[in-house]
Amino acid sequence: MEYLPHLPQAPPLAPAVEVLFHLSGYLPGHRRERMIPSGRMHLVIELDGRPRQVYDNHSGEVLQTLRSAWLSGVHSRYLTIGDTDDESRLVAVQFAVGGSVPFTHRSAADFVDRVVPAEEVFGSGVLHLRQELLELGDAEERLGRVERWLVERFEEGFATVDYVQSVVEEMLADPGTVRLTETVDRDGRVSYRHFSDRFRRQVGTSPKSLQRILRFSRIFEQVQGAQTVDWAGLSQELGFSDQAHLIREFREFSGYRPGEFQDLDSDRLNFFPED
Fold first, then answer.
1. Which of 150, 155, 154, 74 is nearest to 116 (CA)?
2. 257 and 248 Cβ atoms separated by less than 8 Å
3. Domains of the chain listed by start with CATH number
4. How far apart are CA 107 and CA 203, in angstroms?
5. Cα–Cα distance between 66 and 63 in angstroms, integer?
6. Which pick of 81, 109, 248, 273 has the fewest CB atoms within 10 Å?
7. Contact at 8 Å (CB) between 62 and 85?
8. Which of 191, 204, 246 minimizes the C-alpha distance to 111?
9. What's this model's pTM, rounded to 2 decimal places?
10. CB of 75 within 8 A of CB of 270?
């Protein structure tokens, strides 16, 4: 598998876009995998001509078939997807938390727990972009073209709201200790209800939901690859009421018990084999 990341360094993409990446030569060896929630939105453009499926997490029923390009919103639960049974080749954009709106020109709340065809959001231009990428043979050239396309899409009028972004940054730094009501009251510029409405439009979820997702992500970071885990200490560090609370959250977001998760083997961050 070849993974080539590109981190935008200058406005308008930085800090709204965390990373663009080109993935090729990925052969999963399994029919389905779970994508663990991270609080980010993703634009994916496949370059191999093969569809992907989205499955019901419980019944295994196919809910969607994705082709060409799609936008994945912020998810509050894991997403079960079916990758191709041949080598994957794609380009993807990972937006920063709260960073998608200047590019989609729509409320991030429109896409929560959804995966939508990219042309429904970006118009036919995203399919023209895909065709251009297919005609470029070099991964770096493809990433450069996507970066230019994003700059063309950027609309200043949809820029992030400062008081929302400051809370997001506090959550990213330490999701276990942020007290949302106290933080908004301390700022004093808006009521909590107004703040929550603006937060949903910019980020997608409610403030509390994002905090839960980011707190789970912090658990995920500390547990992945660890030989032993101090679950009691971790639950205290991240502000859970007790260890049982942490384990319930872990299973809700990932579908795994902590012990099951530690036995998994994956070379792709946030993606884990289902079968």
1. 74
2. no
3. 2-158 (2.60.120), 162-273 (1.10.10.60)
4. 8
5. 10
6. 248
7. no
8. 204
9. 0.91
10. no
